Amino acid sequence: MSIGAHIHAEDVLGGALERKADVVQFFLGDPQSWKAPKPHPQADALQEAGLTVYVHSPYPVNIASTNNRIRIPSRKTVTQHAEVAAKIGAAGLIVHGGHVTRGEDPAEGLVNWRKFFERQATEGGFPLPILIENTAGGDNAMARAFDMLARLWDEVAEFGAGFCLDTCHAFAAGEDLDGIVDRIMAITGRIDLVHLNSSRDEFGSWRDRHANIEAGTIAAEQLVAVVEAAGAPVVVETPAGGQAGDIAFLRAALGR
After folding, report:
1. Model pTM greater than 0.85?
2. Over the Cα atoms of the chain, what is R_g?
3. Rounded distance between C-alpha atoms, residue 237 and residue 6, angstroms
4. With pLDDT > 90 as the criterion, what percentage of the chain qualifies?
């Protein structure tokens, strides 16, 4: 089982080596920008070091949106990031599930996700797996409540969509982590990546504030159980100062 971290730094390789990570995740540019991405300058070095790479799409991306000024650039941004991420050997591109605004029908957001995959399928599909990540809050979110996630998967499963489980997001959304892997597998049939984060807030808070594994409100043993059950690569998106400790803790707890 590969364990690593999301690294917010230009020197991703140095950060990975410092943390003794097997996996790295990073943004290809400004996480708040719509700008077209460029290949990471350390792409070759990361592969030579034997690291598995994941790329996270920018935060403004919202494929579900009914607003053309958001949805259209979101589609373009994800497509551009997928192309560059594939060229640097990434194992997947993580994209948040997105949402529609208050008063809108969530079904429109689900259809927008389907149209996105359908359009790309006519051009040969994506060059790497698109991993949809569950989110922490929002009444009209596509991937917060698992009943809505099931509806989303009815629209995108046939196109090979992947899934990224974020433990802080699930906990904040009010989803019990006990048995969560079985519940997700019943919906998606797959968990491609785990974002293993504790939470600074209480269960069901709808607040997306990550904490280090032994410093948050989620029991550390519960997080370890999720990792064991999922059997997927793990990325911690916890505060940077404690990431090395988080990785070491997981390896010790898993006997690795």
Report:
1. yes
2. 17
3. 5
4. 96
